[in-house]
Amino acid sequence: MKKIEENKLLISGQISLSNFCVLDVVGDSEKALDFLQGQVTSDLSVLQNNHYQLSAICNQKGQVIADIIVKKVSNEFKIIVDKTLKDIFIQDLEPYAKFFRVSFKETAEVVHGFVGEAKSIHPLIDNHGLFISIDIDDKALIDSISHDEWLASNIMVGNYPLTQKESGQFRPSEINYDKKRVSFNKGCFRGQEIIARMKYLGKETPTFHVLFSDKEINFSNQKKIKVLLGLKVDNTYLKACIAKQDIIDELID
Fold first, then answer.
1. Which of 118, 204, 225, 233 has CB atoms 3.0–4.6 Å from 152's, for a disulfide?
2. DSSP 141-155
3. CB-based burial label for 81 (10 Å; 0-12, 13-18, 19+)
């Protein structure tokens, strides 16, 4: 059993991500930016036009409510969110949006995902020689990779997609969002004080890990390891889990 340290799965292709929907942020663009900047974990002030940014929203306790991707188009914003988290996202932000005269409107756009070893023009995320990007269009693609392959690719680059049942269960540092989705320089957002405190405490806490093996992965001590997701792709078993580093070190060959 090993940690992901290089691209062991040579996944390359495209997929129409039917589990995602796209929301337009409707309202004055400056007010929309002010509103979103005070709610999302990422720094939208650095997001360029026609680029995408990983982000999330948290509650006052610093727990992640929903993971999102934000696209900026001509100073307007689009929110890409899993359909099962859409209502949670909207209901959580609507009370704050009213103060900025901002609302959300679902579009008919389709989200496409791309995976490959070649760097795209604007990769959303990359790691270990694997590049992942997304785009929005009006038409669906012909899939060349499966949903499991898409998930495996995201796990390999340290991007864990939240499920509806996991909403409000984890803080960013537990699921790698502190590295991929949180800006610690942008200023305040909901839960920011607790999230920052967790980052700078200086003591070991359970964090996100990805393990792979050519055999099925079973843990003998489930109390110390929380399994988030298990997949088998191309005869390789992957497990995304939360545990302290010393526990993981004991498992690695």
1. 233
2. PPPSS-HHHHHHHHH
3. buried
Q: What are the structure tokens assigned to 186, written together?
A: 């942008």
Reference 2, options 182, 213, 146; nearest CA is: 213
Q: Which residue has the tokens 């995408």?
A: 52
* Residue pLDDT, tens place only, 50-71: 999 999 999 999 999 999 999 9
pLDDT tens string 80-132: 999 999 999 999 999 999 999 999 999 999 999 999 876 666 678 877 678 89
* 193 CB neighbour count, 10 Å cutoff: 12
For 107-154, the DSSP string reads ---EEEEEEESS--SS-SEEETTEEEEEEEESSPPPPSS-HHHHHHHH
Element (H, E) at 89: helix 83-97
Quick one: fold of 21-106?
A: Alpha-Beta Plaits (3.30.70)
Containing H/E element for 226?
strand 226-233
Which residues make up the CATH 3.30.70.1400 domain(s) of the chain?
21-106
**How do beta strands 103-106 and 2-3 pair?**
unpaired
